[in-house]
Amino acid sequence: MTNIRKGLLAGLLAGLLLAMLNFVTDGTPGRTLPDVLHWFGITIADPTVSRFSGFILLIVLGGISGLIFGALQRERVITISRALLAGLALGIVWWLVFSLVLTNIMNHASSPFSLQFGSFLSTFPIDLLFGLVLGASYYQLQEHPATAKV
Asked: N or C: which terminal CB in the chain sees fewer CB atoms within 10 Å?
């Protein structure tokens, strides 16, 4: 049960980082945050409310992915390399599901896997960073066995 709580906290922290990066990546602050709402078919007319809602939804989605991450780790202590690799894998899955498939479906693209180079460069590195932060945060939150002093 503690691994799920640690995963939730790590996911919320990584989701907060992802939301902040999405707020400042483009020229207009928060321009890409309403796209998060469009993944689920939500449209809000007021741009300020839409940006704030997208910001909050990214944090919530980060928490949910952290729950999944913590549940997959079970009750074992993991190494930093395993945590980072699992985080990278989760970042790739995040990119595939949200930035590629759901975005293309909601934009009525001809294929759910259609990809433009500019959108790839603006989403893939940030989503990988999300996964790395999630894995590193989870590793830092777990209890480490006492190391023998030499």
From this structure: C
